[in-house]
Amino acid sequence: MEIVKMEHVTKIYGAGDTRVWALDDVNLTIDKGETLAVVGASGSGKSTLLHVMGGVDTADNGNIVVDGKDITTLSDDEMSVFRRRKIGFVFQAYHLIPVLTVEENIRMPILLDHKKPDREYIDHIIEMLGLKDRRKHLPNQLSGGQQQRAAIARALANRPSLILADEPTGALDSANGSEVMTLLHDSVKKLNQTLVLITHNIDLARESDRIIKLADGKIIE
Amino acid sequence: MGWMFRLSLLNMKRRRARTVLTILGVTIGVISIVSLLALGLGVKKELLSQFEDENSVKNITVYGSQSYKEKSKLITDKTLEKFEQIDKVAYVYPEYEIFVSLSMGKYMAYTNIVGIPREQLEKLKLADGSSLGEGGQKPQLILGNSMGLLFYNYNTGLNFSEGENKELTSVVNTSIPTEFGYGDSAVITKFKVSGVLYGKEEDYSMQSQSVFCDLEVLKRYLKYNANGAPVYGQPMDENGNTYSEWVYTSAVVTVNDIENVDFVVKKLQDMGFQISNDKEYLESAKREIKIIQVLLGGIGTIALVVAVIGISNTMTTSVYDRVNEIGVLKVIGCDLDELLMMFLFESGVLGFAGGVLGVGLSFGIKGIINKVAISLLGFVKGTSLAVIPIWLIFVSIGVSTVLGILAGYFPARWASRLNPLTAVRK
Question: How far away is chain B from the Cα of A109, in angstroms, using its nearest Cα?
Fold first, then answer.
């Protein structure tokens, strides 16, 4: 069953001579439960692909259907609802909210959706990501690896249809990086989630079910 | 929803110094505007206290002529009817004044006794132990509350209050020698004092230095006393005879609404009568008050505007500081209006806290102003130059909260429209 279907998606930045085709007629289908690694040089359009798929940026052309819904037709408000219910983001720079504790950060997407967090499920992810002793800490009291684990937990909190991770280990040393990556993959598999992952590290990419490579806004392999 | 308030408060706590300084700015603004308004309101109260109440402005006193050469300007019952027919007039009553000398022991006062209708007499506020007295043969007197200062001992040079160390009410229910008229027709008699007007001796007013009695009893007594001769105080025609109708000294015309006073004054003047009315004094007093209030309010407003700019500045920095946080919230799916509300709540809290503190401290300032007024300006202890009415408390806190929210609006809108990508881009 396909969870993402992108058809003829185009995204152009700039105008005239400085025009850049960040995505050039991209067609991509991702199945439910699949893990997909996206590789490519800087400026190849990897991040843009992730952003239009996750509804934080809009495509100039083409259709993007996520979990049965064409997100290119959504309004800003509908897009917010879409993001908090269907997408879990993980960034290179963690982007936790500094004044909230680890647990509060993890519960945030659920609160934003005006729902009551499911305690058991939240406890389960916290435990799975090894943050049990850290739940009451503020982000700046954690190591980089721990912060990224908290960010992964936050991405999983709302049981989204799709986890989008943009170089999640980019700011970590290799030991921490591979630990986080293993946890990410394990969690996604255990919870039967779909993962799209951007990475520079070809070794990490190999852990995924499928790898695609981008260059100049096109999928080349 | 709860998360918004929590996040706001946590962020304010994190930037404690900035939060405290902003609130301090609002506090100073509120203090200046509330204290200056309190002063303005106090001055207003002080200036208006010389008018018994706003209603007295609706009363126009019309003076009748006493000369036969102006027969049309005599005030008789027929004239009163004419006054009553003037548009916008609520009611009319006559007054009859006789000049007398009164004595209480060694103290004498030269004054007028004013006869007014019983129903007007009943409107007077009396001191304890006083009454209006019964009809009877002789008029019974009600002394104004300042009359103790008017009774004068010509040997010692002291007035009744200074010399006797007694309240004026101590003469209630005694009869005091009363003299009126000239030469052969001079009358020396005794009138009973049935009451004293309510009020402190030093509270001067039109009434406080008058002596009142029942008009009908006075008329009856004077007619009886004249025994067929011309009645005391009544004007005579060119042949030296009094008129068949009773001629009053003056009439009080009460207008239905303050707005219509000018209209009725004009009508009465067109009829050729001399009149007196407090409206002009009241209006000039009100003009002065307005100038003072605009001046004081203006100074306070400047302080408040500065405070609002302070909030706006704080909110702008707060948004700039948190671009990343705002971006993250948007990416993980925060509703735009909730984001807007979070910042408005924050600026509203700054305004509200400043308002509450400012109003609280204004009470301290008010105390200082009043102490200064008593020690330097010679205000009577217990009176106040600055007053803070309850509405001012609520209005100032409300206004500073609303201004806080407004000051935060543009930074908040900017935050909610921020492109999430710029915020979270590496």
Answer: 6
Nearest to residue A45, comparing CAs of A71, A73, A78, A22?
A22
Number of domains in chain A: 1
Helices B279-321 and B390-417: crossing angle in degrees, nearest 10, is 30
Domains in chain B: boundaries: 2-51+284-424, 55-277
Which of the four pLDDT bands, split at 50, 70 and 90, describes residue B419?
confident
**Pick from A47-61, A80-94, A151-165, B38-52: least confident:** B38-52
Mean pLDDT of B408-425: 84
Q: Look up the domain containing A78 and give its range.
A: 33-58+73-213
Suggest the residue from B7, B19, B328, B413 to mutate for an interface test with chain A (most A CBs closer than 10 A).
B328
Per-residue pLDDT reduced to its tens digit, B213-268: 999 999 999 888 888 788 888 888 877 788 888 999 999 999 988 788 889 989 99
Residues in chain B whose Cβ is within 8 Å of chain A: 1-3, 7, 10-11, 13-14, 324-325, 327-336, 338, 420-421, 424, 426
- The beta-strand segments (E) located in B76-148 are 89-104, 107-116, 141-143
A98–B336 C-beta distance less than 8 A:
no
Q: Kindly list the residues from chain B whose CB atom is less than 8 angstroms away from the CB atom of residue A98.
A: 14, 325
Give the integer Cα–Cα distance in Å for B222 and B143. Answer: 20
Domain for residue A25, yes or no? no
Q: What is the CATH number of the domain that holds A189?
A: 3.40.50.300
Report which residue type is found at A139.
Answer: P
Residue, of B350 and B3, whose pLDDT is higher: B350
Q: % helix / strand / coil in chain A, to the nearest 5?
A: 40, 25, 35
Average pLDDT taken over every residue of chain A:
91
Domain contains A126: yes
Of A57, A92, A111, nearest to B421 by CB-CB distance is: A57
Residue A88 domain-assigned (yes or no):
yes
Within a domain: residue A24? Answer: no
- Chain B partners within 8 Å of A87 (Cβ): 333
